[in-house]
Amino acid sequence: MKKTLLSALFLSILMTACTSEKPFELKKGPWRGVIETQGLEVPFNFDVNEVNGTYSVTLKNADEDLVLDELRREGDSLIMVMHIFDSELRAVASGDSLKGYFIKNYEKNYRLPFRAAAGQTFRFEGADENPTVDFTGTYTSILSNDEETTPAVAILNQSGNRVTGTFLTTTGDYRYLEGNVSGGKLNLSVLDGNHVFLFTAIKNSPDSIVGEYRSGKKWKQVWKGKLDPNAALPDANSLTLLKPGIETFDFSFPDANNKTVSGKDDVFKNKVVIIQILGTWCPNCMDETKFLAGWYPKNKSRGVEVVGLAFEAKDDFAYASERVNKMTARLKVEYPVLIAGNKDKKKAAESLPMLQQVVAFPTMVFVGKDGKVKKIHTGFNGPGTGVHYERFREEFNTTITELLKEEVAGN
Hints:
By secondary structure, the chain is of the alpha+beta class. The protein is 18% helix and 43% strand.
């Protein structure tokens, strides 16, 4: 009997030792990651932080620090959830290195090889110590392939061999790009939580630039730019239009708790209403949501309401609700965000039949106290665009002030 009990006890201890997960350990400090796509390497930098055994990772792109504080172990894999996005880095740790994949969970078979090494602080290999080419400037640009041509404004800032910048387009900006000059060639990259971008270019004359842009698994475009300090895009308030004869923006969608919210609800009557068309998968939308989430609590007492209409990656209410709840909690959003449909622009336009088309996520609709649409702003120039973001903020606040001054007949 004693031998049987001892055997059972030994077996129990052995099973516990085999099945229990030991806490993972990562070397603290700087790391350099690389994602492989389209036969090329897209580098990015991150820091590993640890407080009382709890780890976090900070993605570092130019002036942005994006904190990833959902790290967990599954078997022999370390999983780093990408902030509010339904994507992750999944890798096996071995000493001072990681090897695995960047995965978008909402896209079928989206896995890109990933590796990282601790202690490395450079971005691109072979950066020129004293570059002879300076890419600094504002460029009127075109990104094009056989499927699409996109007008853009490229803004580049070079200090030594380090270059930061972004691209403004009619649908939003490319946020925080960072890179180096190597052999006279410009290299810019980003992992922003949901996007993997790589830009390369050379100067083919003192005032012009030509290169390639790659995004994700397959997308590739040629881009060309010409120095132009006055480079500008079409007016963002002229791109998304109501259908002829329509003046109002009527909506009725469920929130994450499946409670229907309508534009005709009393909370919106005789108020200025900002309707945000967004998706939780969209980094530009994250930037716009951060702006509105900070602005709304300070201004709602003036007679302003904000409501978000989320168009998500899957036609599944439970999935969409989960994504919206995560975003609103993470970004401290106090205004309602409703489940409006699928992120496909044609399907989104079917959900919003008052619009001629949905041009971009995000899009912001300004409704006056009389219930009529006063302005529709397409895209968003986020904080990565510098002076363009400040101009947007100034224009936004001026618009709200003017709409609040309008008198409503019968009041």
